[in-house]
Design a protein that fits this description.
Layout lengths: L7 H7 L1 H14 L6 H14 L3 E5 L2 H11 L7 E4 L6 H8 L3 E4 L10 H7 L4 E5 L10 H11 L2 E5 L7 E2 L2 E2 L6 E5 L13 E5 L2 H10 L21 H32 L13 E2 L5 E4 L3 H10 L29 H7 L2 E4 L7 H23 L1
């Protein structure tokens, strides 16, 4: 049996006719930029996230970057974020002119509030909690810290559409929520895209201009800015996919539950939902001391797995100027050596899940026997 890490073609084949009808109608209409389909999507997405507004942009990195620009974050400012995320969390801060400052994470991969407090300086302007793997960060703590120190909160929701913290959707806690619509995300476009959510009316109107050259109308430019618009075609496809998103999300959670049931008796560290959260499992990450051996063993049995991410951001070549060294963030660094992402996409069958679990257990048996001896 073969188990791919993801199967984007299969997902689209199941709704292909509906998508093609949408494309055909759009070609006839000629509405390609900032059209009615985008407006419909933005309204639906804002409702999904419990915010007043949502606006589509070119990608998830632009969502983060433009949000900080619109909030006035600039050179000399600092923004605290996690070192175990995808590099766009930090790069967007740098591109906005500010300095990324890292704080270590907890065992659940999410920012440690105590470490965030210790990272605050007089130059800190914002906190960027990352809802990594589709699990919501501790937003009560993040909001409390932000209020105490008069900081903005920029939620990196790239992996977490539909995730909830204490019954409230991510993307609705901070000044902004920033989502990616990359093809590998739980809600995706057929290319690239992103969304910003906010309930701040003034910030929303500034962002509308910021994504469109700084134009306040067709002929007048209020400030220099970027071209970062979500194509109307992609928005039209998203309007189809939004109808499927509850089903896809439920299936991801079912898959995660099956993994937990089958792997709970092992010595692996496996993710389990907390009572306060609804995780959406963009990735299902286990931790294994013999991670590389396990990954190779799975590959030998035609099971694809990934590592998200093997080299923390603070140890990347691009981050050298920040002055961090190996050992600065021990939890992140330890996890980077043990984490392994298993396949978790809605079209994965129960038979494939069981095959993955059986293969993992087969790998672990010799080591379990050694421990007993």
């Amino acid at each position: 049996m073969k188990v791919p890490f993801v199967n984007l073609g299969l997902q689209h084949r199941l709704i292909k006719d509906e998508l093609l009808d949408i494309v055909s109608g759009l070609l006839d209409s000629g509405q390609f930029i900032l059209g009615d389909d985008l407006a419909t999507f933005e309204k639906s997405f804002a409702y999904l996230c419990g915010t007043k507004y949502a606006l589509g942009v070119a990608n998830g990195t632009d969502a983060l970057f433009l949000s900080m620009i619109a909030m006035g974050i600039q050179q000399g400012d600092e923004v605290i974020t996690a070192p175990n995320s995808f590099l766009a969390s930090a790069s967007s801060i740098h591109l906005a002119g500010a300095t990324p400052v890292f704080a270590d994470v907890k065992e659940d991969f999410l920012l440690d509030p105590d470490k965030v407090r210790k990272a605050i300086t007089p130059r800190t302007r914002a906190i960027m909690p990352v809802h990594l793997t589709g699990r919501p960060a501790d937003m009560d703590a993040m909001i409390e810290i932000a209020r105490e120190y008069n900081l903005a909160v920029v939620e990196d929701c790239a992996q977490a559409v539909c995730a909830e913290y204490k019954g409230r959707p991510v993307g609705s806690f901070g000044e902004v929520g920033c989502f990616s619509l990359h093809p590998l995300k739980n809600l995706s476009v057929c290319g690239d895209g992103g969304v910003i959510t906010t309930s701040n009316e003034a910030l929303y109107h500034k962002l509308l201009k910021a994504r469109n050259h700084g134009l306040k109308n067709r002929d007048e430019c209020e400030f220099w800015s970027f071209n970062s618009r979500l194509d109307n075609l992609q928005a039209a496809l998203l309007n189809v996919k939004l109808k499927k998103l509850p089903e896809w999300t439920a299936r991801r959670r079912e898959i995660a539950s099956r993994y937990v049931e089958r792997l709970s008796d092992t010595n692996l560290v496996i993710p389990v939902d907390k009572p306060s959260e609804k995780a959406v499992y963009h990735t299902f990450i286990i931790q294994c001391e013999r991670r590389d051996e396990l990954k190779n063993f799975l590959a030998e049995h035609e099971i694809d797995s990934k590592i998200h991410y093997p080299l923390p951001i603070h140890l990347q070549e691009a981050a050298k100027y920040l002055g961090y060294r190996k050992g600065d963030f021990p939890v992140t660094e330890k996890q980077s050596k043990t984490i392994l992402s298993l396949p978790v996409f809605p079209e994965l069958t129960n038979e494939q899940i069981d095959y993955v679990c059986d293969t993992i257990n087969e790998f672990l048996i010799p080591y379990s026997t050694q421990n007993l001896e």
